[in-house]
Write a structure and sequence with these properties.
The chain has 254 residues and is mainly beta. 15% of the residues lie in helices and 46% in strands. The protein has a single domain, classed as Double-stranded beta-helix, CATH 3.60.160.10. The protein has four helices and 15 strands.
């Protein structure tokens, strides 16, 4: 039995979103400031630059996987183990981490109680894997946490040109499963993200601005025009191309 005071009833902590076992809390103002930093803290809050934290409710039947070092505190009978099952598995995780910019070891929390993640100034996005057809590919460095019902794998780009010219890297983290919620750290808020829903169609994006896309989509890099000369003189050059059926989340700015 535990009791949590000055949290849910704290006027400076506002729950702005929730999905599954996760709740997103936003610090309305940064109260721990000095006179020298008070002006910057005030205008930061006015421009939506605020600390945000994710709280996960563990009920004994669910578990949460996080990036290494993401936990701030736990309350109740909450235990932690790692996703390492041996030397071979550890080396495999190291290889995945090296190509996806994720942590080698991702702690797994389970039990009955609360798990609070470290504050971040980045924007938090919840994704329901089922709404992505059971599989979503993430841009590097976005993963923060997910349910243990979600599997992690590394997917390679469809061709070398997409890695060399597309700015996406040769490998990306893929989250898959029949159900589960993923928590992402995004450079832009969710209300600014543009969603493309394709049905046997194509999207061409000039720049590395897609943050997540369905694994069913084919990603390539192609000339913006019919010829290299035409692409060069148009000022567009090469563009990232996504073909097939699926969804793409794109940030409005790089």
């Amino acid at each position: 039995m535990f009791q949590l005071n000055n949290f849910y009833d704290n006027g400076n902590m506002k729950c702005i979103s929730q999905m599954g076992c996760y709740k997103l809390f936003e610090h309305e103002r940064d109260l721990s400031v000095s006179p020298a930093s008070a002006v910057n803290a005030y205008f930061a809050s006015e421009m939506n630059v605020r600390k945000r934290q994710v709280l996960a409710q563990l009920s004994g039947t669910n578990g949460v996987i996080t990036q290494a070092g993401a936990m701030q505190w736990t309350l109740g009978n909450v235990q932690m183990n790692t996703n390492v099952k041996g030397v071979g598995n550890f080396l495999g995780n190291m290889a995945k981490a090296a190509v996806t910019k994720e942590s080698t070891v991702k702690p797994v929390y389970f039990g009955n109680g609360l798990l609070m993640l470290e504050p971040t100034y980045k924007h938090i996005i919840f994704l329901d894997i089922a709404q992505w057809g059971g599989s979503v590919v993430l841009d590097d460095g976005l993963f923060l946490a997910c349910d243990t019902t979600i599997q992690h794998s590394v997917v390679a780009r469809n061709n070398v040109s997409s890695a060399v010219f597309g700015g996406e890297g040769l490998f990306n983290l893929c989250l898959s499963g029949q159900q589960g919620i993923a928590v992402l750290e995004s450079p832009v808020p969710q209300q600014e993200l543009i969603a493309f829903n394709l049905q046997d169609d194509v999207v061409k994006i000039d720049g590395n601005m897609a943050i997540a896309w369905s694994s069913s989509l084919q990603f390539t890099v192609e000339k913006s025009g019919k010829s290299l000369l035409g692409s060069a003189v148009s000022g567009e050059g090469l563009v990232n191309v996504y073909r097939g059926t699926g969804t793409i989340l794109m940030a409005p700015t790089a």
